[in-house]
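FORM 7B: Structural annotation worksheet

SECTION A. Query
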Amino acid sequence: TPSTTYAYTVTAFDAAGNESAQSGAVIQTTKAATSSGEHIYISQLGSGGQDGSSCDNAYPVSWFNTSANWANPKQPGKIGPGDTAHLCGTIITQLTIQASGNSGSPITILFELNSKLSGSYWINGAINASNAGYLIVDGGTNGIIEATANGTTLSNQQQSSGVVFTNCNYCEVKNLAVNGMYQRIPGSGDAHGYGNGIRFSGGNNNLIHHNVIIESNNGISYTAPGSGLTTNIKIYNNTVSRVSNGIIFGSGNTNAIGDNIEIYNNDLSDGFVWDGIFDNCTGDCWFHNDGIQTWAVHAGSKITNLKIYNNYVHGDWGAHITAWIFTEGWISDHYIYNNLLTVSGSASSPTNGFIYVKGYSSDATSGANAKIYHNTIVSQDRGTGIGLGNAKNIDIKNNIIYKASTGIYAPMGSSITGSNNNIFYGLGNNQMYYQAGFYTFSNWRSVLGFDLNSSTGDPLFISGPDSNFSLQSLSPAVDTGANVAITTDKNGVSRPQGPAWDIGAYEYAPGAPVCGNNI
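SECTION B. Predicted structure
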């Protein structure tokens, strides 16, 4: 059994307060790592003896892409359940996974230190798998997938993707840096909506996490195909920037069902790169920028048990921005909570609201029963905090909306069952809107009966570059929230810390670190 000896020196005090140093050692034993799987090494052209035993003796990519070298059930010398395929050096050829792992014995594709897949562009993914399962793509310490010559002023304009999984079950993509799938020049008039950092279509029980994605039309794209169920999907702890859409999940055709979808702890910024040109522009002006967008818009499609929480959406998303968080169509009973949504400097605020829930006027179930709780929304004296479009029976509680022109905008076709225990600070002239007209905050309360336990006081955010709009001890948000059964805040601090829940994304906790998007 392996063991390691650690020496230590500590400072001690006797009863009289005299200081002394005490030294010693501790022996830590660890169980030797065991694995029933093989470790098989791959490089572009192969190396050394080409027996796959190490990076110095790696098989070539052509061996990896040959189906005869994969086997399920597992066969010695072939990639199968429980095995790890190690990627070595720079690889310039698409990798196509040829077999599935098994429950408890997945197949892992692992980037070795300083390894990458590098090409001008990647049609259908630098790493691709279809109709497979129990797969892990792991970027390891610093694994990279990059497109080096695909973009507005570059040699190619192609639909390029980093990882593409189709109908993959129990699959995981983690720890990757995906760079430059399409490098668009802002304001260029380039109408190509190209590039996906990570793209999934269909499949169940999948994880996408701890990836960094830069320069692509879509950061993470997940489509639920028609006439099927896509369930148990978690997209979390990813950092995505310079994209038109940070994370999207939506129906791809009729009768597409998405269930138990969680999007959380992601850091999303700077969609301005993908702004359309507004001169002589009609319709969508090519691009539809959103931090997080989910939709069920095809006939017979729906998304149930959707949760969007603990995300940080910020920066400059350009003039053609719909929402920081946008849900659309036949989505009901979903939760949007603990999100920090901010805009930087003079950047545009979203057209429809930092949070925008959209249903259909002819349907009672679309955009219905959303719970919007504990979000902190920081505008710059403009824009709408929470916007509704034909969304029904919406519950809005424990949110901070800071310096928005309009706190809540709910036009005809929309309805609010409850709005209370919120803070609306620094609202503009068009303070609140319901059904057919604007209301002052006072009339919003006295005429409509909303937000009777809410206030317009300064939430007293902690100042400083690392505060992330957490609360001071004397904030009116402390201990004035409602119990909406959200038991942790954005940083994982338990709610409540005092006699009642705090308002906003962060719970005030004396002694807790003032920081953090917990990414």
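SECTION C. Observations
The first strand starts at residue 3 and ends at 13. The two ends are 36 Å apart (CA to CA).

SECTION D. Sign-off
Analyst initials: ____
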